[in-house]
Amino acid sequence: MQTDQAQLDLLSEADVAGFVAGTLAEDLGAGGDITSRATIPAGARLSAVIACRDAVTIAGLEIAEAFFRHLDDQVLVERFVEDGAAVAAGTVLLRLTGDAHALLAAERSALNTLQHLSGIATLTRRYVETIAETDCTLLDTRKTLPGLRLLEKYAARMGGACNHRLRLDDGLLIKDNHIAIAGGVTAAVCAAKVAATGLAVQVEVDRLDQIEPALAAGADRLLCDNMTTDTLSAAVALVAGRVPIEASGGVRLDTIRAIAETGVTYVSVGRITQSAPAADIGLDYAPA
Fold first, then answer.
1. What is the dotted CATH code of the domain comprising 162-268?
2. Which one is the CATH code of 5-128+276-285: 3.30.360.10, 3.30.750.200, 3.90.1170.20, 3.30.420.10?
3. Which of 204, 220, 221, 246 is the catalytic position?
4. Is 175 one of the catalytic residues?
5. List 53, 175, 242, 252, catalytic entry
6. Across-strand partners of 285?
7. In this structure, are residues 246 and 223 in contact, taking their beta carbons and an 8 Å threshold?
8. Is 157 assigned a catalytic role?
9. In the 3-class helix/strand/coil scheme, how is the chain assigned residue by residue?
10. Fewest Cβ atoms closer than 10 Å to its Cβ: which of 34, 117, 228, 240?
11. Under a CB-based contact definition with an 8 Å cutoff, are residues 67 and 103 in contact?
12. 204 is catalytic
């Protein structure tokens, strides 16, 4: 479920400065960019553009700029589009003018991040467009690269998805292992209600016969896991609007439309963060 925490500006919550510093340290090592120092005179200036080579949805421009500013606090940056924009192949995203050594040293880290986040936003937009004009909302998941969750969830949002829980502490989701250890759906949901966390209680079900016990115990929301579309339709009919239903598990571009049309409220997709290909974005020398 989209949480209050998820409504915050994820870039403000993320430690972008720390991410930028750590990423540059990884790439520069102790000796820095020895190739640029060996071939380009100190003090040389560089004017360059960052452009996409395919049609993409953009995410991560502010972070890309932060890489360049970290090494050249006087860099001049012109931004021509904003995150969330769907742009055509060949669109210029940024123009940079600054110290050549600094900009070239930051190039790979900035592009890696921009390509990765824009890849997530682009794939997410494809999923969103596939379920257009249904009453279903696309959610992301916690299937993110360690250390990059806030940035990847920001990218998913730029592609049009809504954020599911960001962490284990901002959403109560009872899954199959919780149910097995607790002794069943009823026991797990009842225990969660008694715990009085103040959070809505969502429970994962993978069979229709688990639904009534979950609702009777007080579940506020259901996650129907790896159900066929016929079973999902039956689940929607059984619940009859009493609580929201989320469908999850193995959802793909070629299956999401049929899932959305069963009448579920949400569909969550791990692939948008876990398997998105990088967008083709590059930096090229371009004298003003």
1. 3.20.20.70
2. 3.90.1170.20
3. 204
4. yes
5. 175
6. 48
7. yes
8. no
9. CCCCHHHCCHHHHCCHHHHHHHHHHHHHCCCCCHHHHHHCCCCCEEEEEEEECCCEECCCHHHHHHHHHHHCCCCEEEECCCCCCEECCCCEEEEEEEEHHHHHHHHHHHHHHHHHHHHHHHHHHHHHHHCCCCCCEEECCCCCCCCCHHHHHHHHHHCCCECCCCCCCCCEEECHHHHHHHCCHHHHHHHHHHHCCCCCEEEEECCHHHHHHHHHHCCCEEEEECCCHHHHHHHHHHHCCCCCEEEECCCCCCCHHHHHCCCCCEEECCHHHHCCCCCCEEEEECCC
10. 240
11. no
12. yes
Query: Catalytic: which of 54, 225, 261, 280?
Result: 225
Give the pLDDT score at 7.
39
Query: What are φ and ψ of residue 76, in 5° steps?
Result: -95, 125
User: What confidence category does residue 5 fall into, taking pLDDT thresholds of 50, 70 and 90?
Assistant: very low
Could you tell me the residue ranges of all domains in the chain?
5-128+276-285, 162-268
pLDDT at 248 over 70: yes
Q: Residue 10: its pLDDT value, please?
A: 84
CA 53, CA 148: separation in Å to the nearest integer? 25
The residues pairing with 47 across neighbouring beta strands, listed in sequence order, are 97
221 catalytic residue (yes or no) = no
Instruction: Decide if 9 is catalytic.
Output: no
User: Which residue in 69, 79, 126, 143 is the catalytic one?
Assistant: 143
Cβ atoms of residues 41 and 91 within 8 Å: no
- Of 34, 32, 91, nearest in space to 58 by CA: 91
Q: What is the pLDDT of residues 46-94, one digit of tens each?
A: 999 999 999 999 999 999 999 999 999 999 999 999 999 999 999 999 9
